[in-house]
Amino acid sequence: MLARTPACVECGLPWGAPSFKHEDEAPLYWSDTGLLCSSTCAQTHFGKRRVEGTFVAIPAECPVEV
Ligand SMILES: [Zn+2]
Predict the structure, then answer these.
(1) pLDDT, tens digit (0-9, with 9 covering 90-100), for 40-65
(2) Among 19, 31, 64, 66, which residue's CB has the most CB atoms within a 10 Å radius?
(3) 46: CA distance to ligand 1 center in Å?
(4) φ/ψ (deg, to 5) at 34
(5) If you measure from the C-alpha of residue 28 to the centroid of ligand 1, how many angstroms do you get, rounded to a whole number?
(6) Which long-range contacts (CB under 8 A, 24 or more apart) does 36-44 make?
(7) What angle do CA 30, 32, 11 make, to 5 degrees?
(8) How far is the CA of 62 from the centre of ligand 1 (A)?
(9) How far is the CA of 18 from the centre of ligand 1 (A)?
């Protein structure tokens, strides 16, 4: 479940932080478990998910309402 204030599920960077990658008001990276702040965190996250066997090939809908 998403926290009240979304943050990167890998590094904990809060959504809205200057270094959180976004386009207009929408995040650029996310998974079914939450937001990802950058391509680096996205690669780390999906790498872990593949190892865990929980990788979901179907893109999750963006979990943030914009
Ligand atoms: Zn991150």
Answers:
(1) 999 999 999 999 998 877 667 776 66
(2) 31
(3) 12
(4) 155, -170
(5) 12
(6) 36/8, 36/9, 36/10, 37/8, 37/10, 37/11, 37/13, 38/8, 41/8, 41/9, 41/10, 41/11, 41/13, 42/10, 44/10
(7) 50
(8) 16
(9) 12
